[in-house]
Structures are given as C-alpha cells and as structure tokens.
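Below is how a single chain appears once it has passed through the pipeline. First comes the sequence as given, then the structure the pipeline wrote out for it. We keep one example in the README because the format questions we get most often are answered faster by looking than by reading.
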Amino acid sequence: MAMKQRLRPILLYTVFSAGFLLFLFMMEIPALETSGNSKLHNSTDTDGGRQQKEIPAAETGVRLDEKIGTILPLDLEFRDESGQLVTLRQLVKGPTIIAPVYYRCPNVCNFMLGGLARVLPDVRRQPGKQFTVLSISFDDTETAELAAASKKMYFKSMRGEFPEDGWRFLTGTKENIYRLTDTAGYYFKNVNGQLLHPVVVFVITSDGQIVRYLHGTHFLPKDVTLALVEAAEGRLGTTIQKMVQFCFSYDPENKTYVFNLLRISGSVVLFTAVTFLGFLFFCGKKGKRG
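Resulting structure:
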C-alpha cells in the first residue's frame, strides 16, 4: 500500500510531463511551417502582403551558393558615401554585416535596408566598435551621391540611435563588385534593365571569413546578435557560447536561429524526474532503516 502511494505521484508527474511536452511540440509546428525561405526577386517585387513576382533562378542565372568559411578579398577598393576610396580591410575591423544592394532599387532593397535600420539599434553589440555594417552596391553605375542619399534616409529613420561610422554605404567598379559577389556565392543579373538578385546579407569575421547568411527583408535582433557573436568568436567554444548553442540553433532550411523549446523543456523535465526519483529512493532507504 505504501509503495502504491509513493508511485502515484510519480505516475501523475509522468503523465503531466508527457502532456506538457506534447503541447509544446504542437505549438512549435506552426512556427516552423510558416517560416519560409527567402526567394529571388527583381526590382519590381513588393512586400507587405502584396503580390511578389518570383523569378526562377534556373532561367536567369540568379542564385545564392552559400559559401560559409570562405574568406572575402579584403584588398578590394570601393568608394564610401563621401567619395573617398577605401579598402574593405580598412572598414572590416571586427564582425561585419555586408548587405549587397543597389540604391535605385524601388522595392526589395529598400525593404531589406529598412529591416536592418529597424533592428540594428536593438542588436546587443556596440556598433562601430563590436560590429560594422556595409551596404555595397552591385550596380557599377551608381555613385557616391546615391550612397550618401541612401545613408541619410536610413539614418534619419533610426533617429540618431546608430553611430555614423557604424554603417557605411559603398559603391565600386564592376571588377571589384564581381570579385566580391562571386567569392560570396552571390549571383545577380541584369535582365532588360532590371537587376535580379538574391535577398540576403552575410556576416563575416575581422579577417573576412563568412560565418552566416541571413535571408529576407525582416530580421530579428536575436538572429543578428547571435550571428555577430559567431563572427566574434570564430566558433562556439566558451561556456557561455555553449549555453547559447544549446538554447539556440541555426535552422538552415528556414534561415533563422530558433529556440530549441522541446530540447530545453525535455531536459528540465528529465532533470526534475531524476531528482524526484532519487529523493524517493533515498527517503525510502531511510524509512526502512528507521
């Protein structure tokens, strides 16, 4: 009788835990299903719920080949928004976000840069010191004046919440543009005067090594922050980073960091169950001795 009374709470606890984990699993499925991959767009694409024209990559030669681990040529020269010639090595002094765009793009590039402008003030790293952002035009006909106008617009939207040297806007020659984009696996094409291109930014280390691609026009602070942490550390190695790696993982299919809800919950439940069983075991021994 005493044994049954001891087993009853264990049984109830097990049933409750199984039901709780099943509930979490059901909650997690819709999030995975609705988090889609980024697509290729042309300059007439729209966002915000309106219709988007998808361009098959096979028909245009437009594609993205992720080359994580590849080192970009930092000796390439570009002009900044003031018209000064600078090398990437001068600007890449730590973890860096590179956003390939063209400033005359009427839609999708604006959405992507607008997404960055919204999220950058919330990134938990110090801009200009712990990370830098580079918008680089892949249209070799664009000028520093266009870059300056674009910078002014997005900095105005951030209302002074981001340092001037934390986000640079660059233009360059066709040769240097193609050397950069080809190395990064970023392939775009001019079709009938329209630039077709992937919608993605990539994060690199201080020596130019690509550590992560972030797709789409909307970014989450945790995605950007964790990608910059990866770039700063080179790889997850410290105790703190191992905890981050355990709680968060990068979903290559949906192109985002996801919180491993089932893994964390399961670990907590398992730890609690083992502790509870150990408590009953040792208490039972003590009772018998008494």
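The longest strand covers residues 96-101.

See the next section for the split statistics.
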